[in-house]
Specification:
The chain folds into two domains: 3-168, Ribosomal Protein S5, domain 2 (2-Layer Sandwich); 175-316, Alpha-Beta Plaits (2-Layer Sandwich). Helix content is 37%, strand content 22%. The chain has helices spanning 64-81, 103-118, 125-135, 190-200, 204-223, 227-246, 257-273, 296-304; strands at residues 3-7, 10-14, 19-21, 26-27, 31-35, 41-47, 55-58, 61-62, 87-93, 147-150, 164-167, 175-180, 277-280, 287-291, 311-316, 322-324. 52% of the residues are buried. The structure holds ligand 2P0. Ligand 2P0 is lined by residues 12, 15-17, 25, 31, 104-105, 136-138, 190-191, 282-283.
């Protein structure tokens, strides 16, 4: 027996960058994301008593580096199920892995949904979101579709560090155009990068203290479908996060020249031609253009024309992590 789950990556408009607690993987900043439809991770989990340790295959190859993190997350589910049986995990992405496209978000979300089913736990979404957070903070958000918020945890019991659905995808069908400017893995992973920023960026305290106001403003913009307000707060929040990254020591410079060309292009489209689009960018060189559906063709053509853009991906907003039928290919 095996269970297969599919999860889509999410793109944060208000960013999680920094941890309050590294052991429990609690975020220092709240976040707001949109779950994509066209990009996915599919993960097959099969528990097997003959295994001496978990086995992880990622995109067809053994991945010992990612295995420890995966095992630690699975251990939480095993504990709830009262078992120590090891698992064979087979996971693949239909998009570049570990390159700033949130593959860890979809990866851990798919993992917990498949493992929950395979262990017969039938946990609720909130609990699954918290479990996914232990694997990767952003994964907590991929349990849900559409617009998803995640407050920074402030309760003493720390149980509120889970994501919550804010608005269904169908209620405000925005689109995302991703300009892939590099297919290589990032040199510093998000977890290590966040810790570096926390310890060394002089701007980190200001970043953390301003995060709640940005989250409140962005949630209000989503609730009222106010694209101009969402544009303003999202771009500002993204640039503040990159200012923190770039002011860390050693600096975290995730952008390339092409990244910057894409940002300038999107600003020009909006300011000179009135195209309803804004940019965001994460721990990688890719640029995500968030736009109204009518702007997709124009935005995709403009980004594809920029030298150094290797691929343009287009996605609507999608659903949270779900089990899929055995028949569907991994
Ligand atoms: C986000 N990022 O909110 C931000 C924006 C990257 C930049 O969440 O250490 O892979 O596994 O909890 O979830 C990427 O961080 O970090 C991330 P861990 P994760 O989407």
């Amino acid at each position: 027996m095996a269970a297969i789950a599919q999860a889509q990556p999410n793109i944060a408009l208000i960013k999680y960058w920094g941890k309050r607690d590294t052991k429990l993987n609690l975020p220092a900043t709240g976040s707001l994301s949109i779950t994509l439809a066209a990009l996915w991770t599919r993960t097959r989990v099969e528990f097997d008593e003959s295994l001496r340790h978990d086995e992880l295959r990622l995109n067809g190859s053994q991945d010992p580096a990612a295995r420890a993190r995966t095992s630690a997350c699975l251990d939480l589910l095993r504990r709830l199920a009262g078992t120590t049986t090891r698992a064979r995990i087979d996971s693949c992405n239909n998009f570049p892995t570990a390159a700033g496209l949130a593959s860890s978000a979809s990866g851990f979300a798919a993992l917990v949904v498949a493992a929950d089913a395979e262990l017969g736990l039938a946990l609720d979404r909130r609990t699954l979101s918290a479990l996914a957070r232990h694997g990767s903070g952003s994964a907590a958000r991929s349990l849900f579709g559409g617009f998803v918020s995640m407050a920074a945890d402030h309760r003493a019991d720390r149980e509120d560090a889970v994501a919550e659905p804010l608005l269904d995808a169908a209620e405000w069908p925005l689109a995302v155009v991703v300009a892939v400017t590099s297919h290589t893995r990032k040199s510093v992973g998000s977890g290590a990068g966040m810790e570096r920023s926390r310890h060394t960026s002089p701007f980190y305290p200001a970043w953390v203290s301003g995060a709640a106001a940005d989250l409140t403003a962005a949630c209000a913009a989503v609730q009222t479908r106010d694209f101009a307000a969402l544009t303003a707060v999202s771009e500002h929040n993204c640039l503040k996060m990159h200012a923190v990254m770039q002011s860390s020591q050693p600096p975290l410079l995730y952008w390339s020249g092409t990244t910057l060309d894409c940002l300038q292009c999107l600003r020009a489209l909006r300011e000179r031609e009135g195209v309803e689009v804004f940019f965001t960018s994460d721990a990688g060189a890719q640029v995500k253009a968030v736009c109204l559906p009518g702007a997709v063709t124009r935005v995709a053509a403009a980004l594809a024309d920029i030298p150094g853009v290797e691929q343009v991906l287009i996605s609507g907003l999608g659903e949270g992590a779900q089990l899929v039928n055995d028949g569907e290919a991994i």
